[in-house]
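This protein record is not my work; I was only asked to verify it. Would you go through it and say whether the fold makes sense for this chain? Here is the record exactly as it was handed to me.
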Amino acid sequence: MADMIIGSQPVRVPGGAMPSGAASGAGDGGFKNILKNAIEDVNTLQSQADDAVAKLQMNKGSMHEALIAMEKASLSFQTMLQVRNKIVDAYQEVMRMQV
C-alpha cells in the first residue's frame, strides 16, 4: 500500500494507487494520474477475481482464493465509489459558492 499525506495525517491508499512523486503535486497531472491509477487498480483486482472464479469453475483453484479475490475487488470498488461521491460533493459545493 502507498502512503499519502492529507493535511498532516498520513493516509494509506489501497492497491498502491499513489505513484511515487505524486504527493509533492508533481506537474505531470498529479490528481488525474492518481485517479487513473486507482481506477486501473480496481479494474485489475476485478480481473483477478474473475480469473479466480474461472479457475474455481474448472476445478483448478481453491474456494478460499476465489472468495478472497472477490472480496478484495468488492472492497476496492466500494472505496472507489465513496471517493467518487466525495469528489462529486466537493464539486457541487464549489459550484454553489458565490463569487
Notes: The beta strands are 2-6, 9-13. The CA atoms of residues 17 and 66 lie 23 Å apart.
